[in-house]
Amino acid sequence: xxxxxxxxxxxxxxxxxxxxxxxxxxxxxxxxxxxxxxxxxxxxxxxxxxxxxxxxxxxxxxxxxxxxxxxxxxxxxxxxxxxxxxxxxxxxxxxxxxxxxxxxxxxxxxxxxxxxxxxxxxxxxxxxxxxxxxxxxxxxxxxxxxxxxxxxxxxxxxxxxxxxxxxxxxxxxxxxxxxxxxxxxxxxxxxx
Length: 192
Known about the structure:
By secondary structure, the protein is mostly helical. The protein contains 6 helices and no strands. The model is unreliable at 94-120 and 157-167 (pLDDT under 50).
């Protein structure tokens, strides 16, 4: 299960990064940070380096939030905050070992120091549902707030809200949404 979840998370991180690569570095930087942290987890990095990775993802979220008002930025901040929390939950400071995806510790592919199903306890479906539901509520709130804010007042001038995303169609939006969902669901599955 953990290998599948990690592969899905890596694919999701790659989808988010691919969607952002055509934009300026300011737009794809946070997605690159998440992709690197996901790759570190896939290689079996645990403990303090993974805590540093969670801090880097949180820093990317703060940087994204403070970069100015742009369409889609709030959803990215929600994704980055959720990924930072889930990455911190996966890491166990002080743990040693490097098992990678092959599961060298003999526990069905679970990396040492990570809370994985079958390791220290049973898989907690309630936690998985809770995390995914909280993320969905936050993302839905972002979209509802954007819709509510766009309906009031006179029509704004027709200028792109985000120069890095100008001219991008529904395929790019679908790629980003699917990548975000894949990462969050995979991480929640690994932590549960």
